Amino acid sequence: MKQVLLSLAFLFIAALGYASHIVGGVIHYECLGNGDYAITLKVYRDCSPGSSGFDNTAHVGVYEGSTLIATVDMPLSQATVTPLDPNTGDPCLEPPDVCVEESVYTGEVNLPDTEIGYTLVYQRCCRNTTIVNIPAQGDNLGSSFTCEIPPASQAPCNSNPDFIQFPPIVICINEPFVFDHSATDIDGDSLVYVFCNPLDGGNPGAEMNPPTAPPYTLVTWNDGYSLDYPIDAAPAFSIDPITGLLTGTPNQLGQYVMGICVKEYRNGELISTTNRDFQFNIAACSQSIFAAVDDVEPCTGLSYVFDNQSNGEIFEWDFGVEQLSSDTSSLFEPEYTFPDTGTYEVTLIVNPGFQCADTTQITVSAYTPISTSLDIENFYCSNGSRYWDFTGVGSYSSQAEYSWSFGNFANPQTSTVFNPGPVGYNVPGTYNVTFSVLDHFCEATANLMLVVDPMPQAEIQGQTQFCGGLEIDFTNLSQYAEEYYWNFGESGNSDWSADENPSWTYSSYGEFVVTLTADPQSDCADMDTILVQVLPTDPIQLVYDVIEPNPCDSIIEVQLQFLGTGVDNIAWNMGDGTILTGFESTYIYDEAGEYIVTITAQNNLCGLIETESVGIVYDLTVIDRPIEVPNVFTPNSDGSNDTFRIFYVGEWALPDLYPPGRDIFDYVSDYDLKIYDRWGVLIYQSTEDFPNWNGRIDNSPVPDGTYYYITQYKRKCIDTNITRKAGHFSVIR
After folding, report:
1. Residue 80's CB: how many other CB atoms inside 10 A?
2. How many CA atoms lie within 13 A of 155 on its CB side?
3. What is the pLDDT averaged over residues 108-124?
4. Element (H, E) at 576
5. Residue 14's pLDDT band (cuts 50, 70, 90)
6. Which of 104, 392, 545, 637 gives 20 to 30 Å between its CA and that of 33?
7. Residues of the chain with CATH 2.60.40.10
């Protein structure tokens, strides 16, 4: 329901913004003696954007019966214009943004004594068309504000009652309304308050000069409203005739017109009636009152400024110091210094004593800040892991709680003691070590980025140098080490080196155990050993020939020949699991492909090993077609004729000429291509990886024009001699 009321309130405020008319008014006069009267006219208007202003000159007509006696002209330039405060006076209620101004016009007039009496009148058009309880009449319904001067014989030199205050311009829906509508009378006459009918009057778009003569037309009421029930309310509005106290509880949004008259009696006889006409704006003005305070950062000292997030007008703080009664404040955002460390419950009451009051509490941990750090006390290696001893740094109370985190691969990963035992790491990496302290709600955390390097790994490359004499070269394959210690296995203390890749000359032939220690000065040191054979210089000459087969031969076999000396036996590892022996041999592979042939030559003391790569090609179907060289070359990246190369005649019309994965260069041997520019400068020569030319020099395209070539080739399985050609061609893009 609250959302609906607020929406209606916004519509209502919008209606006020477009209204542009009179809101209310009243006339007061005071007798100055000798027939002189001071006239005060109070006029109220809607001052929302687009509203009409006050009359530049207000004209109050003085009538004796229906005869105009005088017109009191009161210029706006001498009037006092004041905006009225829409405040309801209740901190639980907040009115909408309604604008109403009061203009107080003043003037004087001299009137002779009369036995009939006078009527004072001010007229102004027009009322708001959004008024609920009277017809809009097409924006032509105006107002007449009147009062009476009694005959001199009845009340000589009389002053009429003066209302003490103007009614609130906004009253709140569903909220009990009480307003003192009383007036004062300097003559001491008796006053009686009654509802009276608002009066019509005034012409649209013009100042009424003079106003019309009485009697005046009563404003008619819409259905459901009357003189005694002008506003939707439960209970209905009523006015105490003696005190002028106006009460009621409105229950519908909108603008309503109400008239109240004060009747002046002297010696029990009615001597005058003063008409006050005004407009009530009924709005949904209840607001959401709540108490809210941001939590304060604990452990920042004893003084705090409280961040008030409440909605309200009156604030009552209690800072929770039990032994004090002065630990209070009424400021919106107070600052308070607690007398001692401790935990306090701070209470805030918003709008205390009112029906919309709200209360909240926050806990304040008033302690001085703490700080912490951590240190590394010791480091060592054991059983393939690195270990660190950590310690916390700082002074805390006996209630302090500690929390360590060493990382996912640490052992242990966490701890809750101030000085944890050794923490091991066997997985290299960077670890964020954290040390946290919780002491009386106060927290502090220290961090350390720990770099755990891999453990040193000592490794000596196996012996590759045989029968080379007494001097041996050693290759260090160790990782994650910075220092090395070599022991070459000879007796005595001089057979060592700290070089990374040392050489050592032995004093005699034989077998020796060589030891390498990586990072020898560290607890993390690692060791590796190999057995080294130190033998005399070997007479082996490893000369051999591995002849690949011609794919055009009827039998595709590899020929193996050892051509060296000083060898007792030869072994040929063919790379497919087959090992052959002997100085000469042949071998036929089951499948085409690339194979690594390993040749091992040995005598009674030493052995040598080398490898050779062979390529086996089967099923090379002969293409018995002429080969030509192009005379035009178009390297424009369109997928056609983009490279300069030899080609079979009719090749472009035979898309299936080549098996998948092959091209013309699989069917020729002894191929070579040279390209020259017009000045005879060699700009390109083919290679095994790039047998054709893409029209570029150093990745830059050559200019269009004429170029010269020299090429040679031999068609496999067909030609016995090499074919050589020379000529020129054009580059066109």
Report:
1. 11
2. 22
3. 95
4. none
5. very low
6. 104
7. 303-366, 373-452, 544-616
- Two structure tokens written together for 565: 């000396």
Residue type, 283: A
Q: Is the peptide bond before 210 cis (omega within 30 degrees of 0)?
A: yes
Residue 509 scores a pLDDT above 90: no
Cα gap 434→27, rounded to integer Å:
82
CATH entry, 544-616, from 3.40.50.150, 2.60.40.10, 1.20.120.1730, 3.40.50.880: 2.60.40.10
Q: How far apart are CA 59 and CA 68, in angstroms?
A: 12
The superfamily in CATH containing domain 373-452 is Immunoglobulins (2.60.40.10)
* Angle at CA of residue 613, ends 610 and 615, nearest 5°: 160
Select from 673, 672, 683 the least CA-distant residue to 706. 683
Peptide bond into 125 cis (omega under 30): no
C-alpha gyration radius of the chain: 57
Per-position DSSP letters for 665-693, written without gaps between them: GGSEEEEEEEEE-TT--EEEE--SS--SB
* 440: pLDDT strictly greater than 90: no
CA 25 from centroid of its chain's CA atoms: 56
Cβ atoms of 517 and 458 within 8 Å: the answer is yes
What is the helix (H) or strand (E) element at residue 366, kind and residue range?
Answer: strand 358-366
CA 14 to chain centre: 36
Phi, psi angles (nearest 5°) of residue 123: -125, 145
Element (H, E) at 14: helix 2-18
Task: Tell which residue, 585, 630, 574, 622, has the closest CA to residue 718.
Answer: 622
Architecture field, domain 303-366: Sandwich (2.60)
Strands of 98-203, DSSP E:
100-110, 118-125, 142-149, 162-163, 170-172, 177-180, 183-184, 190-195
Taking the alpha carbons of 350, 353, 358, 364 in that order, is the dihedral positive or negative?
positive
- d(C-alpha 59, C-alpha 39), whole Å: 11
Cα(first)–Cα(last) distance of the chain, in Å? Answer: 81
Percent of the chain with pLDDT over 90: 55
Burial of 625 (0-12, 13-18, 19+ CB in 10 A): middle
User: Whole-angstrom Cα distance, residue 51 to residue 24?
Assistant: 15
CA nearest neighbour of 274 among 153, 185, 178: 185
Cα angle: 205, vertex 208, 212; to 5 degrees: 130
Closest CA to 98 of 8, 171, 198, 187: 171
Q: Distance between CA 699 and CA 702 in Å, rounded? A: 9
**CA 230 to chain CA mean position, Å:** 56
* pLDDT single digits (tens) 519-554: 998 888 999 999 998 877 766 777 888 887 777 776
Strand 668-676 with 410-411, pairing: unpaired
DSSP class of residue 653 equals G
What are the Cα distances from residue 140, in Å, to 121, 126, 135, 136, 210? 19, 6, 10, 8, 18
Comparing C-alpha atoms, which of 341, 348, 345 is closest to residue 302? Answer: 341
The average pLDDT across 17-21 equals 45
Distances (CA, A) of 45 to 80, 278, 369, 441, 642: 13, 10, 61, 61, 90
What six digits make up the tokens of 657?
Answer: 């000429």
Q: What is the structure's pLDDT at 36?
A: 96
| Residues counted in the chain | 733
State the DSSP H helix or E strand holding residue 15, giving kind and residue range, or none if neither: helix 2-18
Alpha carbons 133 and 236: distance in angstroms, whole number: 14
State whether residue 733 is helix, strand or coil: coil
- Amino acid, single-letter form, for residue 572: W
CA-CA distance, 732 to 704, in Å (whole number)? 5
* 8 Å CB contact between 579 and 573: yes
DSSP sequence for 55-66: -SEEEEEEEETT
